[in-house]
Amino acid sequence: MEQKVIQSIKKYAVPLTGEADLNIIRGKTDKARFVLLGEASHGTSEFYTVRAEITKKLITEKGFTFVAVEGDWPACQAVNRYIKGYDTVSESAREVLSSFNRWPTWMWANEEILDLIEWMKDFNENPDVQPKVGFYGIDMYSLWESMEEVISYLTKIDSPDVEIAKKAFTCFEPFNRDNQEYAVSAGLYSEGCIDEVAKLLATIQKKKDQYPCEEELSLNLEVNALVAYNAEHYYRAMVVRDEESWNIRDKHMVHALDEVMKFYGSKGKAIVWEHNTHVGDARATDMAHNGMVNVGELIREQNAPEDVYVIGFGTHKGTVIAADEWGVNHDVKIVPKAVRGSWEDLMHRAGAFDKMLFFDKENEHLFQQKIGHRAIGVVYRPEFEQFGNYVPSHMAQRYDGFIYIDETNALRPLAVEMVLL
């Protein structure tokens, strides 16, 4: 079986020797409104730089209107405000990225993303660009910050709804911004703030057309309230059932993405940057057997096949930024050679060079086998990788295309003051 897959890779893969080779993706995504770009880790330089080049091409040549990432909404709004010119104080993308101070800070506070942010700002300064391209975080870990943002916005516009927001925030105050403490209280003892955040979200959704639209105020209010509501549910479920908390998170990311698409209207076209485990269709992995869904699956279900294009990423060996445990300082770790018989190993044995493989009607039947596909998280122990870092996957069902970098290098984090929340 391995030799057949290797021969099929050799036949259909195309070399990736430089930026120009990525032009092939323009044709592959010709009708797409959603292009999902994965990554096999949150700490690999090449995954960020290659996605950035694809993103530029999609924006300039295919009219894509925004980037949505696996990041916090409030912190990403700092980037969005900078590239759209709403922020008249910050002098550089490097300064703006200091907003990403939640662990793991390196996911967005890194050298690799700087160029793309400055490029998007320059692109938006062309008066002919309408609508301005945006940058949004669709994750839901910013419970406390999103609550503060809602209060700040409602106070700024002198809305009486600020009292509802303050009441919700007051409910969370006894937990001292400790997500674990809230999770235990809400999940095990039913002492939570579900009623308060539900009332806040319902109020803002009901009145969203009454709030000012300047500088995306109404969108910010709604999504921050949505974050608070879904984060409460996430932490409530986290201590009881991990699968349910995963589903809450990925469903939230799709909901937030849909809200941004509505904001852009008929011109909305999204580029999504998230880990392979989020964008690669869960139905093609063992996640489905555990009752788990993900962003890639849900987006595909909601849209016509031609509207969605999913690209996974992987590597054979190299270095990566990760941590030994949740919340501790990161370091550079060695990514060992891929386990024998894994997808990354077969890609390497088909030729030790960077390549792209696209699945279509002509070849998808050749890649239906279930093969282990490496996934590296923000917590990574290379010495134990063979026991838990390979996800059994039907590759041609999980992705529409795959970008393979034979040897990769660790991301270059910026120095920011980290907080653990």
TrEMBL record:
Origin organism of this chain? Terribacillus saccharophilus
Q: Which InterPro entries match?
A: Emycin_Estase, Hydrolase/PRTase-associated, UCP036794_erythomycin
Family matches, as PANTHER family? ESTERASE, PUTATIVE (AFU_ORTHOLOGUE AFUA_1G05850)-RELATED
Q: Which Pfam family is one of those matched by this entry?
A: Erythro_esteras
Please identify the protein, giving its name as recorded.
Protein-L-isoaspartate O-methyltransferase
CDD domains assigned: Ere-like
Lineage top rank: taxon: Bacteria
